[in-house]
Write a structure and sequence with these properties.
Elements: E1 3-8, H1 13-23, E2 29-32, H2 34-40, H3 43-50, E3 54-61, H4 65-77, E4 82-86, H5 90-105, E5 112-116, H6 135-148, E6 153-155, H7 161-168, E7 173-176, H8 194-200, E8 204-207, H9 209-212, H10 217-228
Helix pairs in contact: 4-5, 6-7, 8-10
Bound molecules: cytidine-5'-monophosphate.
Cytidine-5'-monophosphate binds at residues 7, 9, 33, 58, 116, 119-121, 155, 177-178, 188, 206-209.
Length: 230
């Protein structure tokens, strides 16, 4: 089953909470990114949980293992249900993240730990280094390393889900930003429609501007849910 995650890319809590209320009957998850978290701090997570959302704290951790361990510990204590970190941080960073989660979760499972492979806003030409096997191969290598390090899944494009599941197993989770209804074109590059993402096996579809920038966000979220079911 695929679940919708609405990206709350806002500069303050009032705007984010207003949007959250508009989609609360439609989407089970919201995502707090760098802009909102830097403005409002960890309290925004509990305020969104009070509205009965599951909360993805998307801060894309990438640092030395000890620092990431502490960051994951703090974000777990803040109530995150899902966290992101960079797959490029390697195995020791991933293991440290798991340790930080275990320390803070106190016997509970704690948040899902999802590793960013290559941002969906990037195509091969945007990378500052050559990828002779193609960008898809690099995404696959990063996904395999993530699964071997014992994390829960990866953040990738809907174009890559099938090959990742084939290599890492169906239980390995895939979260896909870069979801666009057929008509929209912007800074995202490796995009798929909601229906394509679901068909590929994506577990979580992250959608921001197609919902938050719509004249009627509730209706836009409902249309995406309908498309996910086709
Ligand atoms: O507005 P849009 O639908 O492009 O929002 C996508 C969201 O997903 C943004 O908050 C962005 O930061 C996030 N994201 C992404 N690519 C990743 C990881 C997260 O676009 N690889």
């Amino acid at each position: 089953m695929s679940e919708l995650v609405v990206a709350l890319d806002y500069k303050n809590a009032d705007d984010a909470l207003a949007m959250a209320r508009m989609v609360s009957g439609t989407a089970p998850w919201v995502k707090v990114g760098l802009e909102l978290f830097c403005a409002e701090g960890p309290q925004i997570v509990s305020r969104l949980k009070d509205l009965d959302f599951k909360v993805f704290v998307d801060l894309k951790f990438f640092d030395i293992p000890n620092t990431v361990k502490g960051a994951v510990r703090s974000a777990t204590r803040a109530g995150a249900d899902m966290l992101s970190l960079h797959a490029l941080g390697g195995e020791r960073m991933a293991v440290a993240a798991r340790e930080g989660r275990a320390e803070a979760a106190g016997g509970e499972k704690g948040p899902l730990l999802m590793a960013i492979t290559i941002l969906t806003s990037m195509s091969a030409e945007d990378l500052p280094f050559p990828v002779p096997g193609g960008l898809g191969e690099s995404v696959l290598d990063l996904a395999l390393a993530t699964s071997q390090a014992g994390l829960d899944g990866v953040v990738c494009s809907g174009l890559e889900v099938e090959s990742i599941k084939a290599k890492c197993g169906n239980d390995f989770l895939c979260l896909t930003p870069g979801i666009r209804p057929a008509s929209v074109s912007d800074d995202q590059r490796r995009v798929v429609t909601p229906a394509q993402a679901v068909r590929s096996g994506s577990n979580f579809l992250v959608v921001g501007r197609p919902i938050t920038g719509a004249d009627d966000p509730e209706q836009a979220a409902s249309a995406i849910i309908r498309d996910m079911k086709t």
